[in-house]
Amino acid sequence: MADSERTNKKINWAILVTGWGQNASDVIKLFNKGSFKKSDLSLVVCESEPCGAKDMAEKCNIEVMKIRSADFCGQNTYQNHLIENFKTRNIDYLLLLGYKYIIEETMLSAFPNRIINIHPSLFPSFLATQTAIQDAIDYGVKVTGITTHIIDDKIDRGIILCQEPIKIKPTDTLESLYPKFSKKGKKIIAKTIKHIENRS
Question: Where do the Formyl transferase N-terminal domain residues begin and end (predicted)?
Fold first, then answer.
């Protein structure tokens, strides 16, 4: 590939989501608005319905695949199926937004250092938990936040890409903090995608 072709080639992204997908919906809208000059979003993989990310992707004419882990005999078979679909679409990077499954070695090998996750805490605090926001409140910390990181073979580890702090007030609850995470989540994901663009 010539240098000019390499420079002009856009990064091809897929988003994986297993829940409603609020952050994913926000990011899909950013892609649709042309917020990322060096990236395209080609595929959204969801698992359940209703799914806001699926609805938003369809509205923006982005391909959606509904693939249920339960329809496969195990995670390895399920993730190998995902890999096949990603490879046929020439996907470069995977963005996990509210994706609940642990990434297997086969997928790590297929996309080395190209699988990005968002976690609702400031690494290295409140790792390997599905309740990081509530854990931060219960522990009494004054500041929590969001981290985006490259996935590796350890849960909630890997290379930190971006972090965004969120202050916790004494009166805050999970319900009052969640909108802050949603708002900051959109910001940090956009920052992360641009970070990947700049280093590619």
Answer: 13-192
* 110 in Cβ contact with 88 (< 8 Å): no
For residue 116, what are the CA distances in angstroms to 49, 70, 144, 172? Answer: 23, 23, 20, 29
CATH architecture of 3-199: 3-Layer(aba) Sandwich (3.40)
193 vs 55: CA distance, rounded Å: 22
Q: DSSP 3-state assignment of 69? A: helix
pTM: 0.91
Q: How far apart are the first and last CA of the chain?
A: 15
3-state DSSP helix/strand/coil percent for the chain, to nearest 5? 40, 20, 35
Instruction: For residue 176, give the H/E element and its range.
Output: helix 174-199
Q: How far, in Å, CA of 9 to CA of 199, rounded?
A: 13
In residues, how long is the chain? 200
Q: What is the pLDDT of residues 156-199, one digit of tens each?
A: 678 999 999 999 999 999 999 989 998 899 999 999 999 999 98
The CA dihedral of 129, 107, 191, 43, to the nearest 10 degrees, is -110
